[in-house]
Amino acid sequence: MLLPALASTPAKVALRFPGHELTYPELAEQARAVAAGLVGRRRIAVWARSDARTCVAVVGALLAGVPVVPLNPKLGERELDHVLTDSAPDLVVDDVLPTGPPADLPEPPAGAPALIVYTSGTTGPPKGVVLPRRALATNLDALADAWEWTADDVVVHGLPLFHVHGLGIGVIGPLRRGGTVHHLGSFDVAAAAGALDGDGTVLFGVPTMYHRIARAPEHAASFAKARLLVSGSAPLPATLHAELTALTGQRVVERYGMTETLMNTSVRASGDRRPGTVGPPLDGVEVRVVGDEPGEVEVRGPNLFLEYLNRPDATRAAFTEDGWFRTGDLAVVEPDGYLRLVGRRATDLIKSGGYKIGAGEVENALLEHPGVAEVAVTGEPDDDLGERVVAWVVPTTTPATPEELADHVARLLTPHKRPRVVRYVESLPRNDMGKVLKRELR
Ligand code: MLC
Ligand code: AMP
Predict the structure, then answer these.
(1) What is the rounded CA–CA span in Å between residue 179 and residue 175?
(2) Which of 12, 230, 297, 418 lies in disulfide reach of 410, CB 3.0 to 4.6 Å?
């Protein structure tokens, strides 16, 4: 059973959002009604605003065995159109939750799809990653083992609910444990500190959030109280790790995951929290680094996705013949089995604020603007975001301002994909084949 606590309904808070709480009995009742309203649906999409309604809709769909596509509420017109056309949901859940008369539904099989999460690749529009229930259940149990995570934990975060970090690990995780989610509505250092001053025990965040925590020493005492501070989705710089330790006395626990695999490795609660390392493989997850080190990380195990929706070509290309998933991440293995991630194979993937952004999709969007004749998009180091999106633009005779170009990308794709810097150039460096030499732009 994926969510046993919903059957036993312990008398405690399951979900806490600003100004709104649901206990387990309340969540169970509402989610069962949604499940009953979803019977017979093939696939649904849910506008994944950071609120309890999103969680009720997702939990209801999980109870009914109907796969959910969580939609970023800020999706721009082009990207939204792609996601809806590609996933073809037979219902898009917004404010009003579908409901039906209470019914006892059988637990769906472990191999059935649970979530379809869209993630960027190097080129083309994002792909739908189909995650089975088994991946969630086994991965959350492996994390519980690594982090000594129990029903007594109150997990605090302000992560978006349309990615595996916030939704899979940050909401379904505590609910599987029978513990509590305290979602901040949106990330804010003071609010996170306040939650940890209350009953919060564990904080989940991306490195950008920890960077902002380190810049707010007035709240250090609150973060010092946490049982665990966990970081993931992007590299936590070793300098930031050290700054946080100096401020809070805490050593941040890093874990390494991916939409396609959920979590692969993590430093254990009882383990050595060495800066720049993401710990050993989680129980049940096979991880290997192929070729000369640093080599590519490959993963096999019950945590893997089933396929990219409607993309058998891409699915095939992502796996080796014997079923290892190629992550595209480069790592070395330390003598005690800890992974140290050192980069990515593809230079056209940007991680900004913990969001994955394909350079190609941003370039395609910018090329649609009348002010852009040619464009190349790169990622540059950024203290706060890890990497920032930079657009190198050869303007037309009607050039656009950086703000116009950023708004254009935000409107077409999504705000976090917008270029933070625009550099105007007379031409782009190209090889004999006409391919842009991005390394020369840096
Ligand atoms: C700004 N905004 C605009 C805009 N400019 N909107 C429209 N048009 C424009 N031109 C809006 C934004 O939408 C946002 O609104 C606000 O202004 C600030 O924008 P921002 O500067 O982009 O946001 P920022 O504050 O920098 O966000 C930082 C952040 C965020 C850390 C809070 O990046 C974040 O939540 N990251 C988490 C990503 C994540 O969960 N990744 C996990 C992927 S799974 P508003 O209303 O939104 O504030 C994965 C696997 C694993 O990686 O291992 O976990
Ligand atoms: P996504 O496709 O958005 O799920 O992002 C997955 C990618 O985020 C991985 O392939 C890594 O490149 C990166 N990532 C996740 N966790 C970490 C981490 N702890 N350290 C470094 N990179 C990470």
Answers:
(1) 6
(2) 418
